[in-house]
Amino acid sequence: MPGENTSSRLEKYLFAAFLMVLVWAPIPLASNRSWALGLLASALWAVLLLTVSVLAWHGESWWRRLGAGAWPLGLMGLFAGLLCVQVLPLPQGFLAAVAPGGDSLRTVAVDAFNTQQYLVATLAYVAGFALSLLLVRSERRVLILAGTIVGAGILQAWIAILLYASRAQYVYFFMPFDQGNRATGTFANWDHLAGYMEICLSVGVGLMFARMHGSDDARTPSWRSQLVSLLKFVLSRKMWVRLMLVVMVIALVLSHSRAGNAAFFMSLLLVGGVTMLRSPRLRRTAFWLVASLVVVDSLIIGQWVGMDKVVSRLQGTVVSEQERQARQFSEESLEARTVSARWSLAAVKERPWLGFGGGNYYTVFPRFKQSEWYGYFDHTHNDYVEIAVDTGWVGLGLLATVVLLTLWRVARLYGQHQPRLNRGMAFAVAMALLCIIIHSFVDFNLQIPANALTFVVVLSLVWVIVPLRSGKKARSLAA
After folding, report:
1. Contact, 415 vs 462, CB < 8 A?
2. Domain that holds residue 160
């Protein structure tokens, strides 16, 4: 068998390659093109196969390394298996029961090519989750992975801010861009930049919590001790993380995304409030961090960079399209944003169990679109409805179970006796989950490969950490 140092060195290289893929994912239009998705999936699976080979070479079981994360990973694998079933020829009787009106190829998928591409994206997410479980084996690597996600968010934020300020017109990967109205960065859509910022900001806030000490003293500290603590904070690495959060908030505000900004601040307040209620030791720390994010970032810096435009868009949002036209509002109404999702419920009713095949929403939607509404819909502005149309209640149920298991894991890591890293990563995952849950009601971030991959990797953060049992001392993860 090879030496332990050789195996460890190879794992470091593979871990570095995995981090590079995560940083690369949003750069080519969020990998939301067939060639970019193929490149992303190929890179992830190449790293995964090499990782499994190195473990086998060293005589170590990759299955044991998965730990408790094998459960959500298995559910993701079942979701990928469902997509495989959708493109396979099925007996006519079974097909008639689960997919009435199936095509001449006797498959659930109305267009097998779209479902195959959807399967490629799903396998990329499975590989990303598996790589986190296999390679992140220490607290240091947890911090490195979280820091890389924040770093990728900073990179995207700076690109978005600079391009927005340049007011440039150019073609990027065959797509024309006209910067200056709303920040998009390297994303094709500003709302998806906002979704990416939400995820990265959540991890950044979690890192802040992981680095902050709680206090058992209920008394208010003296002004001298508060001043000393403030100076220590300014001179520490936590200040760098805090500045990174400011930059990402600026990019989020410049996207002018109504749902994105609302989801972020609602999630921050809700998760921060739960933290203050459940963790008396972190109550003061959580209060000041959440208050600084809301007051400094949104009210002060946000107003300077254009928070008023976001507020104006929110105030200009009306319920019905008739009301929008009557009042001469230019903002998209709530009816216009949700109309395709409401009409798509008829598609879910027609094929409730297995859907029409992954990635086939835009193919089947014209049959359910009402004639008085014009326009082309490649996605519906509701991730839940689109997943149900594509994969039925079975697919939606599998993914919902992954979310529920992750929330259960978060609850375990939120205990008073848990180390700071555990609570910090639990905060990050809880906030990211809530952001996407809220935003997904009016958008489709989970259909964007870079956002979906980053989201899945963030979920894995609570599965690579071992919860500490009450009464035991904190211990590191397996090396």
Report:
1. no
2. 4-214+227-460
